[in-house]
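User: Last request for today: this protein with adenosine monophosphate, please.
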Amino acid sequence: MTEYLNIIPGDEPHNDKVLAHCAGIIKGGGLVAFPTETVYGLGANVFDEKALLRIYEAKGRPCDNPLIVHIASVNELAVCVSALSESARLLMEAFWPGPLTMIFPKGPSIPLAATGKRGTVAVRCPAHPIARRLIQAAGTPVAAPSANISGRPSPTGADHVKQDLDGRVDAVLDGGPCPVGIESTIIDMTGEPRLLRPGFITKSTVENVLKHGISQSPATLDTPEAPGMRYAHYAPLAELIIVDGSAGKTVEYINNMCRESGLGAEKLGVFASDETADLYKNARVISAGSRAQPETIARSLFGALRRFDLWGAARVYSEAFYDTELGLSVMNRLEKASGYNIVKL
Ligand code: AMP
Ligand code: MG
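Assistant: Here's the final one, the structure of the complex with adenosine monophosphate:
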């Protein structure tokens, strides 16, 4: 049985009680899904190996795909890692708490079950106030991958967690929608800093802080170091096709394809931007938001993929969002979700 608990803005006595209850579940070896600024996480005490195994079981996650360890303050970093570079200190100062994960050599007390049996550990200090209060109340760093079934779109609301993990986890803490909506930026800090996963904190922002360029793992690299690359990722049930071209050509192409598909409008979806959403015919359209505000596109992406599934769409066309740096992070997810099914016009 999964317990569903709500954060009520402004009702601090209630929230304290709920957070203490969830912290108790984590201390007792249980699993709690909770909101962070990126996506919902599925949390367990990082030092409890049985609880870590339950995370893998609940998500159907391959056991070599490591977890991210969440801390509420930089003080907790010492127990997680065995070395800290000057560059890592700079990035911590600039971006923590926030949506940046860094990979460090792991501390001896971090179980290999949390790191996919690697000698390195991923650590993040989240900015979301509920996540921070929960980790603090649990009194331990909390291992938390995204709270979805492995391979499904990441959860950006408590309803998404319920769709995937009802009955598989002890509690779901509903703190509303996630403000960022895509997973954290991941940088490997064990050698020369290397971007493993783009996110809300972009490559150039990181480079501005470090005052030098950093390398990026090629998106096609099939190694454990390229997060998400080895397994089907973010995939909706519908066939997803990305259409990359000018606004005019994209609208024309998608409308033609929808008309010729032989599928009814209720089986066809389009993920569009505000600028063009009204121009699509013969399909159900979800607008990601305005291209002038790529943050809104990031925020709506995973929820939209899930909504098309709930609608029973058989095929979804998506506009491409390569035009901004944050758009590139969105496309990193969309490309994987589509299985690299991209039409270039
Ligand atoms: P999730 O929290 O579901 O986004 O998954 C965490 C991601 O972080 C996974 O895709 C991992 O590949 C990546 N990750 C975690 N720990 C490490 C590590 N030690 N080295 C490289 N990547 C890591
Ligand atoms: Mg994930």
